[in-house]
């Protein structure tokens, strides 16, 4: 058909979507930003890039200095400012003022040292090496002094968040960041008004008076409001209003609004518990929309050509990184010497206090937006680009140093506590399949502590549906049968039947109501090709229940098992529930009269031997080295039909988690499909799920990657030697 025909022209006009780059339509801008926020974490996780850097890099790619896909319209100004205030508000909420009170002197000393030394060294290097003016040097040096508790989730995972060094570092953060923001507010205020005459006196008075008003009135208003209104949405809107009220008041007197947002977070954190629906909503909205939008907007300002095209830019970035790291190390070293702390505590304080993120981004953007009388920016593009490298390097260094120190502390203090093996326990056994009922009850009977009563609970959960009457009758028969099996060996068992929206929710509610310490469930049987190996039930339980879970499938009666083979991953000894699951397996071995055979890393084997030697001398145990979890398949030749294979796994983001766990379903289906098997998830501290958010932008998986590389290099050198 002729392309000049009227029909063809109409078709071409219809197909033409009038898309021109950069895109300026607000609808498409918002859509593409949401797409980036949605898919960027998936890509970043695979590339092992810290989340905060990844979002900024995404902004670089789509900005005018990248592929020029999006125009930086007013939405980036609005959401960017909201995101900036949000970051500073969350930073204030993260400060634990109760911990600060208990170690306020030591924390103040560390905070002052961590502020003074980077500031002093930074001002000198900025003046004499980089050749900046006095005001620029002071503002840039204040960026070196600030820090964000990026690595704090690491100490939580290792269960050492109550350590003295951690409390000092957290308390010192409040001191350092407050002083940094005061410097930022002063510098910003200088360019908003007349600096002659009584400027400095009025500036100090305005800051003091307004800070006192915020600190005195905000908690009282908040306490009154929260007592009167309990609706989560209303509470969220109120908190946001208070944040912007604090920021607006600071801007009214000529200061930077981020100081008001930070103070609002500091004074409201007592009213907003860390484990509460309101805190969850605040973090969710911030991490889902405002903060990523802000970070993408920052990236759109960055000109990579300036960074890598000019030696001066790399020089600025190098000086910023060195001064920030050296200044924080000196502060940590002096604090250690003053209070005669251990070297590992110094390492931990340094690791927690050297990551740059929130306040650093705030300072660089404030300085970048200040235009001097000669038309130059107070902080130029060299500093803006160097800040990104500073954040990247310090976040990586902070994560690795903190993890190394935390691991050392856990190792030094790892004493096997006999009380953990004998503490109060109660198993919950959900029953739905009559074919697996007897095996699950038998498993509960052999792992329970016989010295304790009322430690077995059989549960039947019924969906509230049209078929609920029939399901209730079937569930009642299952519970009666379970009670009969337990009664036959003179063991009392509590039976519970309940209605709930879904099975997983019912199990979780029952676990809380009956204070259970472990759950025993049967291995899910796949019904179709899209069905997962463990099933939605087990996956939902593992996401929301952090105590021990046993997922079992038996090909023969439990009492006929002749040997228990246990595959243990590296670092399993650092998990909170290590002693507990070892005791359960030893108890099972003793009840069945069969031998335990452990496969583990040499270091983990040492802990296993020590634990069994101390708590379960009577158990017959064998030990075999399994240096790399990738070599799990070597066990296949040792598993017989009358053996039970126990695979000790862990939840994503925990200490002993290995990416090889993701291949377990396929390996079990292919190599262990005909044998009895149990996948055991031990007790773990806190929330084990790895979340790459503003507060945890450096995933644990990255350190695992480096561990694997190091192990492979070690094996290679060992083989060559």
C-alpha termini separation: 74 Å
Radius of gyration: 30 Å
Identify the CATH architecture of the largest domain. Up-down Bundle
Mean pLDDT level = 79
CATH level-1 class of the largest domain: Mainly Alpha
The largest sheet, given as strand count, sense and whether it forms a barrel, is: 10 strands, mixed
Total strand count, please? Answer: 10
Catalogue the unreliable spans: 687-710
CATH fold naming of the largest domain: Na+/H+ antiporter like fold
The dominant shape is elongated
What topology, given as strand order, has the largest sheet? 3-2-1-4-5-10-9-6-7-8
Give the % helix. Answer: 55-70%
Question: Would you kindly provide a written description of the structure presented here, covering whatever features stand out?
Answer:
- The chain is an alpha/beta fold.
- It folds into 2 domains: 26-412, Na+/H+ antiporter like fold (Up-down Bundle), CATH 1.20.1530.20; 418-689, Rossmann fold, CATH 3.40.50.12370.
- Helices cover 60% and strands 8% of the residues.
- It is built from 27 helices and 10 strands.
- Strands 3-2-1-4-5-10-9-6-7-8 form a 10-stranded mixed beta sheet, with helices on both faces.
- Helix 10 crosses helix 12 (257-268).
- It is elongated and about 90 Å long.
- The chain starts with 5 loop residues before the first helix and ends with a helix.
- Mean pLDDT is 79; it is low at 687-710.
């Amino acid at each position: 058909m002729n392309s000049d025909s009227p029909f063809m022209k109409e078709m071409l006009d219809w197909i033409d979507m009038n898309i021109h780059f950069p895109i300026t339509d607000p609808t498409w801008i918002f859509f593409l930003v949401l797409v980036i926020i949605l898919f960027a974490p998936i890509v970043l996780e695979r590339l092992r890039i810290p989340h905060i850097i990844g979002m900024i890099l995404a902004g670089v790619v789509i900005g005018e200095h990248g592929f020029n896909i999006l125009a930086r319209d007013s939405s980036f100004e609005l959401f960017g400012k909201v995101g900036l205030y949000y970051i500073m508000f969350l930073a204030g909420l993260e400060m634990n003022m109760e911990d600060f009170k208990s170690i306020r002197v030591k924390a103040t000393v560390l905070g002052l040292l961590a502020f003074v030394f980077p500031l002093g060294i930074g001002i000198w290097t900025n003046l004499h090496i980089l050749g900046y003016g006095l005001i620029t040097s002071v503002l840039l040096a204040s960026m070196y002094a600030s820090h964000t508790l990026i690595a704090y989730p690491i100490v939580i995972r290792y269960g050492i968040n109550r350590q003295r060094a951690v409390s000092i570092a957290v308390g010192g953060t409040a001191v350092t960041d407050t002083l940094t923001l005061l410097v930022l507010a002063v510098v910003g205020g200088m360019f908003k008004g007349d600096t002659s005459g009584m400027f400095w006196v009025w500036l100090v008075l305005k800051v003091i008076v307004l800070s006192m008003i915020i600190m005195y009135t905000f908690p009282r208003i908040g306490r009154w409001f929260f007592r009167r209104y309990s609706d989560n949405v209303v509470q969220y809107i109120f908190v946001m209003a208070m944040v912007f009220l604090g920021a607006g008041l600071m801007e009214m007197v000529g200061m930077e609004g981020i100081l008001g947002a930070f103070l609002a977070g500091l004074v409201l954190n007592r009213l907003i518990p860390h484990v509460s629906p309101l805190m969850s909503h605040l973090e969710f909205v911030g991490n889902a929309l405002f903060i990523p939008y802000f970070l993408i907007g920052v990236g759109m300002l960055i000109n990579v050509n300036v960074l890598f095209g000019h030696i001066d830019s790399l020089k600025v970035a190098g000086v910023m990184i060195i001064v920030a790291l050296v200044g924080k190390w000196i502060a940590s070293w002096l604090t250690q010497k003053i209070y005669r702390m251990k070297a590992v505590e110094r390492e931990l304080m340094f690791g927690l206090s050297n990551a740059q993120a929130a306040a650093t981004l705030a300072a660089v953007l404030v300085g970048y937006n200040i235009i001097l009388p000669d038309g130059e920016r107070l902080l130029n593009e060299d500093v803006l680009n160097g800040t990104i490298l500073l954040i990247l390097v310090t976040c990586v260094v902070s994560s690795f140093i903190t993890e190394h120190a935390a691991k050392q502390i856990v190792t030094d203090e790892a004493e096997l506590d006999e009380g953990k093996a004998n503490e109060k326990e109660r198993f919950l056994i959900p029953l739905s399949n009559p074919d697996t009922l007897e095996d699950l009850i038998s498993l509960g009977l052999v792992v329970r502590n016989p010295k304790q009563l009322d430690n077995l609970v059989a549960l039947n959960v019924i969906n509230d549906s049209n078929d609920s009457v029939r399901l209730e009758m079937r569930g009642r028969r299952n519970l009666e049968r379970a009670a009969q099996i337990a009664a036959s060996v003179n063991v009392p068992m509590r039976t519970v039947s309940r209605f709930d929206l879904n099975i997983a929710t019912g199990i979780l509610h029952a676990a809380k109501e009956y204070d259970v310490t472990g759950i025993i469930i049967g291995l899910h049987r796949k019904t179709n090709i899209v069905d997962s190996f463990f099933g939605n039930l087990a996956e939902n339980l593992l996401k929301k229940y952090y105590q021990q879970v046993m997922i079992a499938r038996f090909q023969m009666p439990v009492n006929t098992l002749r040997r228990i083979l246990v595959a243990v991953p590296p670092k399993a000894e650092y998990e909170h529930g290590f002693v507990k699951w070892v005791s359960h397996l030893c108890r099972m071995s003793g009840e069945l009269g069969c031998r335990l055979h452990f496969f583990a890393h040499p270091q983990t084997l040492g802990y296993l031997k020590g634990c069994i030697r101390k708590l379960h001398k009577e158990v017959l145990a064998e030990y075999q080295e399994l240096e790399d979890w990738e070599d799990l398949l070597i066990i296949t030749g040792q598993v017989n039909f009358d053996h039970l294979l126990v695979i000790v796994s862990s939840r994503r983001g925990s200490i002993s988690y290995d990416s090889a766990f993701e291949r377990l379903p396929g390996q079990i289906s292919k190599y262990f499909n005909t044998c009895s098997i149990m996948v055991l998830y031990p007790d773990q501290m806190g929330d084990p799920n790895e979340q790459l958010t503003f507060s945890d932008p450096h995933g644990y998986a990255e350190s695992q990657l480096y561990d694997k590389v190091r192990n492979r290099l070690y094996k290679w050198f060992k083989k060559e030697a």
